[in-house]
Amino acid sequence: MSETSDWKSDLNLPQKDTRPQTEDVLNTKGKSFEDFNLKRELLMGIFEAGFEKPSPIQEESIPMALAGRDVLARAKNGTGKTASFIIPCLQLVKPKLNKIQALILVPTRELALQTSQVVRTLGKHLGVQCMVTTGGTSLRDDIVRLNDPVHILVGTPGRVLDLASRKIADLSECPIFVMDEADKMLSREFKGIIEQILEFFPQNRQALLFSATFPITVKAFMEKHLNKPYEINLMDELTLKGISQFYAFVEERQKLHCLNTLFSKLQINQSIIFCNSTNRVELLAKKITELGYSCYYSHAKMPQQARNKVFHEFRQGKVRNLDVFRLVDQRY
Length: 332
Description:
Blueprint: H1 23-26, H2 40-48, H3 56-66, E1 71-74, H4 81-92, E2 102-105, H5 109-122, E3 130-133, H6 139-145, E4 152-155, H7 157-165, E5 176-179, H8 182-185, H9 191-198, E6 206-211, H10 216-225, E7 230-233, H11 255-265, E8 271-275, H12 278-290, E9 295-298, H13 304-315, E10 321-325
Parallel strand pairs: 1-6, 1-7, 2-4, 2-5, 3-4, 5-6, 8-10, 9-10
Helix pairs in contact: 3-4, 4-5, 7-9
């Protein structure tokens, strides 16, 4: 592609997303991604992924992160939060430097896989290497992969601490530390692990924290580990505007009938159903299938490869309903 050509005209752009959007995404200041002075190769990945203009959280956080500021951002899921920290990471990483230059910590395997996919999609023209590491997968495979260049490491806390403690993952020169879902990451279960991971970082590292809620644990962490952070709060409620919530109080024996009624009366393209036990997950998926609705299930006792396949096919739209056990809270 020549410098003088209109490089955008050569992009392989997806079909325009015509789905209705809420104020959480539309209420912007009118900036464009070009306003952030991003690398052309990064802009190519952004536009080819279907992004058109930055969302409010992206407008606020990306310039601050690119300027080297610590950022503490509160934003709802579904507002472009993930790209808000991935885009600065991709811009700041130096592909020719064979070092881990950004660590992105997330609470679950599934979120780690999703996040790494966004890194690869947006950074596909940059030559940036991204690796995922989570509990329940082969440590030996991680060791082999870390012998090759890895610029961005996405993982869950326990496995990352294990790799750092064994000196397999070298974070001593890693300049960027990211935590998604910081409220969950700083729960009693994870807080000690996070503190230990930070000990492997250089003193002058940059921290980017994103969360839907700011409990006292996040505030305490900010005061201890962040340097004059730029604070962003773009929400006054947890639910995206335009989404209605309903609560149905039914007895145990009525739950399946209630689901059947919802499926038959409402136009539901896809649904995720949460259960409180692994046994119930499998039983409910079977009963929903018997009612004539396609349904997969996923829980922590399943092999990781099987879980990955389930989520991949659900995201591809091959099945309408997904029955899960504590997907949001299952941490590794």
